[in-house]
Each structure stands twice: as structure tokens, then as C-alpha cells.
Design a protein that fits this description.
- It is built from 3 helices and 9 strands; from the N terminus they run E-H-H-E-E-E-E-E-E-H-E-E.
- It is an alpha+beta fold and 178 residues long.
- Strand 2 and strand 3 form a beta hairpin.
- The longest helix is centred in the N-terminal third of the chain and has 22 residues.
- The two termini are 32 Å apart.
């Protein structure tokens, strides 16, 4: 098996972002209950601010802990994905209908993005999700260039092009069919 360039992304949540609710909601109930039992429900802005900060930090640390490093590469007929230390899985290029992604090729500084977002839509399998744990608005040059190279390589390997924008989001559909 001849491997092309292997793309490696760190801190990736390999499932739909809706599943983060199972981290966010329990943490919210935990800190709300803890605040209620410690301070009998009395409202003090400084204490609520501190508990809110602890809540956000806890959610971030848990999501960062369950995130994985993802390696992706192509050969003549397959897309390979390795999530964390698990064995790699291969997906036939012909089974990929298309994918959603940000437009990492844009030159506009306002629209440049270095957050990982890919959703590969497959014909016979569940979709493949790759979401970033980081939600920084600041553009990271090295990460953005790596994402741009991956997007261009994926388009070339799958013979896809940008087809249309998804609603009012900055997410685009890449495919060879509309």
C-alpha cells in the first residue's frame, strides 16, 4: 500500500458536535447544584462569575481530554483515517458522496479560518465528522496552511470541487455532483 502525504490534526472531536451536550449539560448541573448547596441559592455576582469560569474551564478540559489525534491519507482507491491509537479504517473513494468544510483557500483575512471542520458524507456508512476542540477566532498560520493543503489534496484525490454554500454558514459543500 503506497501512502501519500499523511495529514495529522490534533485535538479533534471525531463525532458530531451535538454529542458535546453530554459534557456541557452534566457540568452545568454539577456547578449549579454545588453553588446552590454551598450558598443556599443566594445570588452573589462575584461567586456566580467564579463558578461560571470553573464551569467553562471544566467543559474545555473534558472535551480536550476526549479529543484525539487524527491521521488521514489517501491511496489510489481509498481514504484512510486513524483516530487516536485505534486501528485505521479505510473508505472507498467511490463511496464518498461529498464533504462539508470551511473554505480554507480564501485569501480574505476576515474569512480565513483555522478551525477544523470536515464532514464526509458516505453512501453506505455513517458520516465521518472531524471537529476542532479549539474555538479561537484568531487565525493560526501553520494550522491554517495545513488545513488548506489538506483541502486541496482532498479535492484533487476525490476529484471534487466547491459546489455551494450551506445555508448562511461559512461551510461549503464539495462534490462532483450537486
Amino acid at each position: 500500500m503506497k501512502k501519500n502525504k499523511i495529514f495529522t490534526f490534533k485535538n479533534v472531536l471525531p463525532y458530531h458536535s451535538v454529542w458535546t451536550v453530554f459534557v456541557i449539560i452534566p457540568c452545568l448541573f454539577l456547578y449549579a447544584s454545588l453553588y446552590y448547596f454551598l450558598f443556599k441559592g443566594g445570588f452573589r455576582l462575584s461567586l456566580v462569575s467564579i463558578f461560571t469560569l470553573f464551569y467553562f474551564v471544566t467543559c474545555y478540559l473534558i472535551l480536550k481530554t476526549i479529543s484525539v489525534q487524527v491521521k488521514i491519507w489517501f491511496d489510489e482507491n481509498y481514504l484512510y483515517i486513524q483516530k487516536g491509537n485505534r486501528p485505521w479504517k479505510k473508505y472507498s473513494k467511490t463511496d464518498i458522496k461529498g464533504f462539508y468544510s470551511y473554505n480554507y483557500e480564501t485569501k480574505s483575512p476576515i474569512l480565513q479560518n483555522s478551525k477544523i471542520y470536515f464532514r464526509f458524507c458516505l453512501k453506505n456508512n455513517p458520516d465521518i465528522y472531524l471537529n476542532d476542540v479549539e474555538y479561537k477566532s484568531r487565525y493560526e498560520e501553520e494550522k491554517g496552511e495545513n488545513l488548506k493543503k489538506f483541502l486541496m489534496s482532498t479535492q484533487m484525490e476525490l476529484h471534487f470541487s466547491m459546489m455551494r454554500k450551506k445555508n448562511y454558514q461559512s461551510v461549503f459543500w464539495y462534490s462532483n455532483q450537486d
